[in-house]
Amino acid sequence: MRSSVSYILSHAPGESVMSHPDYAQHAQHHACVLVLVKGIGGVLKNFNKLWERIQRVNNIKVTDSSGQVRDIWVRYVRDYPVENNDWGDFQTHRRLLGLITLSKFTNQIELNEVCRVHESLKVKYSNTLYDSRAFMFGPGSNLKKPQQEPETYNTYDDDKLKERTSLSDKISLPSDQADSLSSTESFPRSISSNASYSVQEDNFTTPSNFKTHALFYGENDAVPDLEQHVADLINSLFWVVESKRLERSREKLEKVSLLLAPFEKRDFVGLDMESRNNKKRCMGRVTKNLADLTLQAGLVAEALSLYHSSAEILKSVNDWLWLAAAKEGHCATSAILQYPNLRNPTPLQRNASLQESSPSKIKPLSLYQPNTDPFRKFKLHSSPLRSSKTSSPVNPPSELTPSSSDSVETSSRQSETDNADTESLASSSDIDYQSQKSYLSPDLPSIPRQPPSHINNQYLLGGEEIAEKYRKAIIHYSKYQNAGIIETEACFKAARIAVEQNNSLHASSFLQNVIFINLTLSEQEKIQRFDTLAELYKEIGFLRKAAFCQRLAATRQVSANNPNPDWQRCYYLMLHSFPGHKLSLDPNYVIQHQVGWPALQIQLLHELVVAARRMGHPALATRHMTFLLQTMWPHLSRQEHRDLAIQLQALSAQCEGGPVPLVLETGEVIPPANLTHVPSCTYFNPRQLAPARTPHLIKCKANQGPFIFTPIHFGSLERKNKKDEGKMEYLWVEDDICEVQMKLTNPLPFELKVSNMRLLTSGVVFESIPETIILPPDSPTTVNLHGTPKEVGELQILGYSTHTLGVKSNCRLKNMPMPHKFPASFLIQVIPSLPTITIETTLSLSGNINISNPEISGNITNISLYNGESTECTITITNTSNVPIEYLELSIQSNMDNQLQSKVFQWSNEDIQSQLPINAGDVATIVMKLYGEADFLDLGGVGENLFPNSLTSNYPSRVGSPIPNAQTSLPTHSSNPQNSLSSGFIMNRTSGSFRSSNSQTTSWSAPISIMPPSRGRQIETQIVIRYSGGAGREMHCRQTTLQMNLELLPSVSITHWDVLPAEIPSQLYLVLDITNLTNEEMDFHYTPSKHILIEGKESRRVPVPLDRCPFTITIPKNEDDSMEPKSISTGTSTNSLELMCSEHLTKNVDLRWHLLQSNITGRASVKGITLSQTMMDIVRMSPLNWEVSVNKQCIKPQEEYNCMAGECLSLGVAVWNHLSRPLHKLCLSVQFYQDYNNGVLNYKLDNRVATAGNNKVVLTTLLEAAKAYHECTVVFLTPGEYKIDIQCSTTEPIIDEIPAIKDVNQTIVQSCAGEVSHVWRFIPPVAISVTD
Q: CA 247 to CA 242: how far, in whole Å?
């Protein structure tokens, strides 16, 4: 823009130069009348309110002599340099035409001084000043009326004016301002509303040389007629301007004088002013001056043609300076018509008349916008006028497709149409606004201004033409060094018009030109220039350039050349440059987005800290240093981390940092900055309560379906997991200390003390316990934070708080920096209080030894018991809480099956329930009986690998396990059916028969709950005590586990056994081989009155007398034998028969042992004993009743009969059937044999015994309760000891009752050995002693 001839047409400095730029000028100010409002005298407390009221009277409507309504606009300034006033001929809007003073006095001397100062101001601006008003506020209303003031107002007019003023204030002013300015209740009213006319007292008088229109009020008067008097001043100024315009318009162009800019006075010295060029120059300048006056007088349309004419004339004579002024005036006039919003700085209430992208609708930029983009607020949607493709750089791509010529034509046509519509809307808006101020011209109607479409607008410039003409005008200005301020102001005006056009590129071009204009300015003027640049850059969305200008302005505020450094202003300027540096005051927003230039941001924050500290606000300095350390942490070196941390410590020593917002004097809020990097948290997780305090559901929920696990991840499950992220599955309990575990790392190279660490929570009331820790450098440290929930409900853990480096920080999980990202919060359900207990266990062993083991929870008790030994364990429960225990339940979990467990551990639930409730501090006692349950029958000869040490299976009887097809699948070593064991067993055991070693031996598949008696067993048991009370007893309980390790030691074992008949048929002897497996001497009691001493590790054989098993005994029903029929068989169901006999022996055998040294007693049992067929015949009473007689003499049991050799004996045998049904095919036989008592029986007695009659008879049927008798004769030929084997056998199975067949295909299992089903013998055999 700048020309190479910039200095050719300029003169050296020293001439009149405009040295005070007015950066607040707008293009619409070309049409305004300039009025100075000055406060003089004492300080007027309501000066600002009066200033605001005066400013609102910025436009009045005046009817000229021809009846046309003129819009007269006013610009008020607080100060105006005289040098700028000298440029009034060059541009008439720079002339100061009116003066208003607001003064305060308390005595006559001050009044005289106020009058003098007012008059001096009139003299100062005497060259251009047309009229003035003096508003004087005294201590009361006793003021003498000035003699020179005409009295033209009456009471009636004054009342009307007051009414209109009040109405105007209520309608046209903002509500708060109207209340403050027009309300008569805010100030005490003076005696009269027009105090200057109605009160005449001699206390104060104005000097005689004071010739100004003065208005006197009391100091606290509301001044209701202020607007009226200001409007009166503007009206008078208009008529002066109008007269000047008319005077100028009537001048003959041939005789006009040459108008000069202040620095041009020497340019035309000695020149021929009558030359053609100079005459044109005079004509062009006068025409341009007339256009200025016309514009100020409200004739905007006429001014357009005058500016155009003057530009044409000045262009012909190359008068660049005034040509530039003419072009600028032309552009300003066109802009006033094109953009009526320029004259309405406050937005209208009718939104329809506002263009979408008008600056009045752009919201001010906010520094704290966490939810929006804080770096760009420039609107991209423009009005129809601004939719020109050549003027707007932000059009959508679709609008850039046509050719440039078409675009320009289309834009031009649309601009004209839209301009007309916009102007008509603006005109109607102005009419509405001005009709409310009709009191300024009460006798004239409000006539609408003609829209530009009805005006001869051939000279009205479009949007692009305005920018182009402004560019040319600025180029012409740049040719003159002394016009630098004019050029600068023109650039700002053009930029503001470009902003209104929403053309950011044009605005940027004009603003960029300002930077290159070389001006000699003061520091304040430089600051003002950068402020203005920053403001305009913000309006077009160039936030980075705006921030650059703000930062330059901030540095100028405290530069060495500034005599009055202002650190506060410097601070606010740098603070407001945050958006341009891509910074937000919210540190979380900065950390989350990480945009901008870190080096610039770090430097800006450093300077901000210095500015805050120098302006005496240590809290702000600490906050910004914390912000710097927190947000810029990834971009700082390790040394910078250390240095900044030390600086932060020094700053916080003056004022501690806290997690609360800071509110500045301007109302801006500085959000808190929390140090999450110092220290850094790598792990954060709430901990479940200790196992003894963990709440459990009293009633467990049933499994939802058969599926326990699936590797398939369905989408719904994933969404649910995301939704429930952070929600804990476990529970916390009210009034219980809870724990959160975290890992902290100190990233600084020195030890870091972190104090007052607490948990941040919401929801229920939570009492957090503070923690203090010293963290070594670069070493992860585990920290546990504790607290107590005080209410029931949902607890939300948001994070934790720290106090380090002098700064208190609230480190929230949602704001934690990456990569250690946590859920936004943890949700934990808090349930009502539950009781707590302590447990003490006491053991009472057989040796009278008490063992006490008090533990809070999880205690372990080790107990050793001999097999068969009993003891008691007393569990003492103490309630250590304030909640009563109303629910108490005891259960056992072990590696035993339930049946065995119930025999080892026994307790009374009724006794437990009778002790409830257990109040605070009370004690409850649970007595548990322990018994060393064992199998005392030695398995014998079986390898250890066949007996797995596991106690988890059932505990079946050692007899009675039915196995299908056992005979065919398991081989037997005995072919003698009488000596073979039950074929239904799957146990590998060597028979304990003393008379036969041909016992059945099969492959062993032992029940894993049974161990050999010679080996010890380890039983791991957990006694689970569940208890609850208080409000949550229905849902939740606590669970304490008492670990009990029970060791069962071997005591005695039964290695062999046999069954012998007793002296009488109703009894038998169970002969046992007892082994003492202990190292002590044992006193073994096998009957109530008989006992035997057994040394350690030795065996003894004892006969246990027992009654035989009655024939009519009920067979016990066993769960494991559910498939076995109840029958009394003659050989068909051996399992049931053996089970019956085994149970009979187990029930009637009472074995006790006593270790003499240890004084330990116990019991032993033959449970599970196995019996062969022969044994069962001895154990069980026979179903047949025998009666044997010799020579008609009945033989008694154990009775020996004596006879002589060769003596004929008559042997009679009678048999009774005691069954409930007949027996068929019975074979009764009598055999004689000799027993050599060495296990050899000799039945071959053909040469020793002779019989007469049958020794074997067959009974076809023996009815129930029937008797069969058989008799034969026998002769013993040689002497000796003889025995008679009398037996009865059957070949047909006789079943006591028909079993229920559960399956039609199932058959009754019959275990018949050959043809004989069963054999009954008469025992003991008849013994006959034959002598010579």
A: 8
In the predicted structure, residue 1294 carries a pLDDT above the cut 90: no
pLDDT (average), residues 1036-1047: 88
CATH ID of 1182-1331, from 2.60.200.20, 3.40.50.1220, 2.60.40.10, 3.40.50.2020: 2.60.40.10
Cα of 1271 vs its chain's centroid, Å:
104
Give the span between the Cα atoms of 115 and 966, in whole angstroms: 139
Q: Where are the domains of the chain?
A: 28-250+384-428, 463-670, 680-702+719-831, 837-928+1028-1044, 940-1013+1051-1173, 1182-1331
The tokens describing 302, both together, are 């006429």
> 887-894 and 905-906: which strand pairing?
unpaired
CA distance 536 to 721: 51
Question: Highest-confidence range of 852-861, 964-973, 1103-1112, by mean pLDDT?
Answer: 1103-1112
CATH value of 463-670 in 1.25.40, 3.90.550, 2.60.40, 1.10.10: 1.25.40
> How does residue 700 score in pLDDT terms, banded at 50, 70 and 90?
low
pLDDT of 239 above 90: yes
- Tell me the CATH number of domain 680-702+719-831, given options 3.30.70, 2.60.40, 1.10.10, 3.40.50: 2.60.40
- pLDDT of 609 above 60: yes
52 vs 936, higher pLDDT: 52
Tokens of 550: 């703000």
Domains 463-670 and 1182-1331 share a fold: no
Residue (of 94, 112, 95) closest to 103 by Cα position: 112
Say which amino acid occupies 1316: V
Please say if the pLDDT value at position 1043 is more than 60: yes
User: Stretch 360-387: mean pLDDT, rounded?
Assistant: 37
H or E stretch at 696: strand 695-697
- Distance between CA 1054 and CA 1070 in Å, rounded? 12
Distance CA 529, CA 524 (A): 9
What's the CA gap between 71 and 439, in Å, rounded? Answer: 15
The beta-strand segments (E) located in 258-375 are: none
Closest CA to 1274 of 1331, 1222, 1318, 1230: 1230
Rounded distance between C-alpha atoms, residue 938 and residue 1171, angstroms: 14
pLDDT at 698 exceeding the cut of 70? yes
> How are strands ordered across the β-sheet holding 1052-1061?
1052-1061, 1067-1076, 1099-1107
Q: 634 pLDDT exceeds 60?
A: yes
Question: Residue 755 is inside which H or E element, if any?
Answer: strand 752-763
pTM for the model stands at 0.65
Q: What confidence category does residue 607 fall into, taking pLDDT thresholds of 50, 70 and 90?
A: very high
770-785 burial code (b ≥16 CB/10 A, e <16): ebebebeeeeeeebeb
CA angle, corner 455, sides to 452 and 458, nearest 5?
90
Q: Determine the residue type at 133.
A: R
Q: Which residues does 362 contact at the CB level (< 8 Å), separation at least 6? A: 377, 378, 379, 539
Rg (CA), the chain: 62
Query: 201-215, 573-587, 945-959, 1196-1210: which has the highest mean pLDDT?
Result: 573-587
> What pLDDT was estimated at residue 701?
53
pLDDT at 546: 93
- Rounded to 10 degrees, the C-alpha dihedral 313/318/320/321 comes to -70
Q: Are 193 and 225 in contact (CB under 8 A)?
A: yes
Whether the CB-CB separation of 1066 and 1035 falls below 8 Å is answered with no
pLDDT of residue 38: 93
Given the structure tokens 């059945």, which residue do they identify? Answer: 1000
Task: Report the chain's terminal Cα–Cα distance, integer Å.
Answer: 169
CA 216 to chain centre: 68
3-class secondary structure, 727: strand
